[in-house]
Amino acid sequence: HGYFTYDPGFVSTASCKSKITFIDGEKGVLLHRGYPIAQLATQTDYLQVCYLLLNGDLPNAEQYANFKKRVTYHTMVHEQINSLFKAFRRDSHPMAIMCGIAGALSAFYHDNLDIYDPEHRELTALRLIAKMPTLAAMAYKYSIGQPFMSPKNDLSYAGNFLHMMFATPCEEYVVNPVIEKALDRIFILHADHEQNASTSSVRLAGSSGANPYACIAAGIASLWGPAHGGANEACLRMLERIGTVDRIPEFIAKAKDKKDPFRLMGFGHRVYKNYDPRATVMRDTCHEVLKELNIKDHPILDVAVELERIARSDEYFIERKLYPNVDFYSGIILNAIGIPTNMFTVIFALARTIGWITHWIEMNEEADSRIGRPRQIYIGSPTRDVRPINERE
Ligand code: CMC
């Protein structure tokens, strides 16, 4: 088998060169285009981060205003998309709807799309940034049987999403600035994370020259799993299942038991062997939001804080360098601001779309970009001959 390097899970394989995001997992560092994530999360907004990822640097005031105008121009979706939603069962998981609807966008933008033209690639990015909140909110409205709310382009990116989620034709939704800021920060913290499973899926799908909207659907599918973006939903469900602080030791024991498939959701990371820098900002934001919303008793937060304390002083977690990751506190914030649990991973997908499409663009900019084609170590049967059907065992 000497020809290929065997690397299950791609633990030590660099699949590409990239200028977008840098991670030092040992030190807990995350930089986008050189800027530390904590500074971006506290001193910029999500649309500035989108601009940064796409263009390589933060925008000045004029560039920002222009970018915002270009994005908001695309917030509406084609009327036929409304009919598409109606094909789904009302109780469909919203991630299932998002896989289908994002893929279906390729049917609207295919024949006139030239992926070799940089302007077309940029237009694809703008459309996706603009339309994902609209589609995500539509998935929610559909599930609760309320009419879709059109985007309001004079609101901020996060404010518009909240409006489409919570306003109704009979009642205006007044955006709470605390909630708006917290949601925007959650978007920033999820914007990109180099070659994770979903981004690698988008790149691999895109490496064949496939339609970019279909590639984004591949990313959404990959993100859905509980080992990846689905962990935020799974984490909140776990915290609710634990319920009270006195039950934590029972769940810690389950997580350590190698015969039990249970894992502490929101703990551990392939790359971070130190505190996930996104989790640090998320934890601070969580405390801020609950304080500003005047939520004094939050039993789930109490369970989370105590679970973190116990796990971090436990030999099993210390030895394996298992720290809280980005998904550990995000669910508590989303829950406090009224987002239903099955929408958590949709929020992640919405925010990660900028990362996916930036990687897709970067890949397409390379002159020597090749189709992704991993090899394998074959361990099946040696060569044998087909026998007539009535002579087979
Ligand atoms: N609870 C209990 N044990 C764990 C956990 C956990 N959450 N995570 C890892 N371990 C153990 C694992 O059993 C193994 O132990 P041993 O060496 O005795 O066999 C060791 O730690 C190494 O784990 P691994 O599975 O080899 O690590 P990995 O790099 O393949 O997996 C992970 C990384 C994130 C999938 C994993 O830590 C996990 O399943 N965590 C829970 C799910 C989660 O929170 N995912 C979100 C990740 S961050 C956001 C994102 O990517 O979307």
Automatic annotation (TrEMBL):
The active site is at H269, D327. It catalyses: oxaloacetate + acetyl-CoA + H2O = citrate + CoA + H(+). GO terms for biological process: tricarboxylic acid cycle. GO terms for molecular function: citrate synthase activity. Pathway: Carbohydrate metabolism; tricarboxylic acid cycle; isocitrate from oxaloacetate: step 1/2. Pfam families: Citrate_synt (PF00285). PROSITE patterns: CITRATE_SYNTHASE. The chain crosses the membrane at residues 328-351. SUPFAM superfamilies: Citrate synthase. GO terms for cellular component: cytoplasm. InterPro entries: Citrate_synth-like_lrg_a-sub, Citrate_synth-like_sm_a-sub, Citrate_synthase, Citrate_synthase_AS, Citrate_synthase_bac-typ, Citrate_synthase_sf, Citrate_synthase_typ-I. Keywords: Membrane, Transferase, Transmembrane, Transmembrane helix, Tricarboxylic acid cycle. Belongs to the citrate synthase family. This is Citrate synthase.
